[in-house]
Amino acid sequence: MRITTLSVNNAQTQGPRRREIISRQSPQHLENATGLMLQALRLRPASVSRGTLVLGAGACTEVPLAALVHNSDEVVLADLDGISLEQARAELSSPAMRRTVRLVTDDLSGGISASLDRLLARLPWAALRKQGSRALFDAAASCLEACPVSDPPEFAGLAPGGFGLVISSLVLSQLFSYPLLDVLDRVQRVAPEGINEQEHHRGYQEAAQAFRMRVIVAHLHLLRSLLDTGGLVVLLCDQRGFVFDAPNPQVASEHRRTIPLIPRAFFDLVAQNFTLVERREWEWLTDMPAEGRYGRGYDVIGYVLR
Phi/psi of residue 155, each to 5°? Predict the structure, then answer.
C-alpha cells in the first residue's frame, strides 16, 4: 500500500531543510500557507476553544507551529507519520512549548487503504487477466464502489467540537490518491499491458470519481465535527499538479502539462459546509527541472472557513 511509504517520503520532502528550499524556490507557498493560519488565529473568537488541531501536520514544514503554540492552550498534531510529528515538536525552542503539543498518530482517512487492499486481495487476478483489461477494471471499479468510507472518521484523542481552530494541511488529495494508486499498482503487477486502458474504461473512471467525492465529503464532515461552535477552519488543498521543463514555468505555460487532482464539485461542497472568510490561490514549485528530469509543482487553494 502506498500509505506505508509515507514516512520514507516525508523524510525527503518535509522538515527544516525542505522549508529552506521552498523559501528559496517557491516563497509564495510558505507565505500563503502560514499567512492563512496566522489570519485564522487573529480571527478566532475569544469565546471558542483555544485548542488547535492540525490534520496532516507531518513535520510542520508549512505550519507556523510556534505561533500556534503561543496562541493556544493545546496544539494537537495528527498524522500517520509519527516520526515527522516528533521532529516537528522537537523543533520548538523550549520544553514548556513542547509540553503544549500533543501528537496523534493515525490514518486520517479512517483506514481506507487497508479496507480497499482487503477487497482487492480477494479478486481472482489471474483469471481476470485472461479475460482482458475490461474485466480487470470492471473488478477494480466494483472494489472502489464497495470500499467503506467512514463519514466522518473517528479518532481516539480527537474530541468532537473540541477545537476552536482546525487546520487541514495539504492532506485531502492524499486521502483518495493513495488508495487509487494502490488499485493501479495492483493492475500494473498483474497485467502491465492493460494499465493504460483505465483511461478508456468509463465504469472505472466513474467509480474512481465517486470514490474521490465520498472521501472529500467525509473529510469536510470531519472538519465540521471537530470544530467548536463559532470556530474556524483552515483548509489547504492541491487543486492540480503540473510538470514543466522551462526554467521559468510562471511565464512559459506552453511548457507545462497539468494533472487535475480534485473534482470540480469540491468547490461546491466547501460552500455547502462552510461560510467563506478568506480564499487564496497560488503555485507551489516542489522540484525544479534538471537534465533528464521535469520540474514539478502544484496549484494550491487555501481557505479560512467558518
Answer: -135, 135
Measured distance CA(139)–CA(204) in Å, rounded: 9
Q: Each residue of 115-157: pLDDT tens digit?
A: 999 999 999 999 999 998 899 999 999 999 999 999 999 999 8
In this predicted model, what pLDDT tens digit does every residue of 231-266 receive, in sequence order? 999 999 999 999 988 666 554 455 678 889 999 999
Domains, the chain, ordered by start: 2-248+257-305 (3.40.50.150)
What phi and psi values does residue 240 have, to the nearest 5 degrees? -145, 145
Go through the chain and tell me how many residues it has: 306
Helix (H, G, I), strand (E, B) or coil at 24: helix
Task: Give the whole-angstrom CA distance, residue 284 versus residue 300.
Answer: 7
Cα separation, 89 vs 78, in Å, equals 12
Q: Is 122 exposed, middle or buried (0-12, 13-18, 19+ CB in 10 A)?
A: exposed
Q: How far apart are CA 137 and CA 195, in angstroms?
A: 9
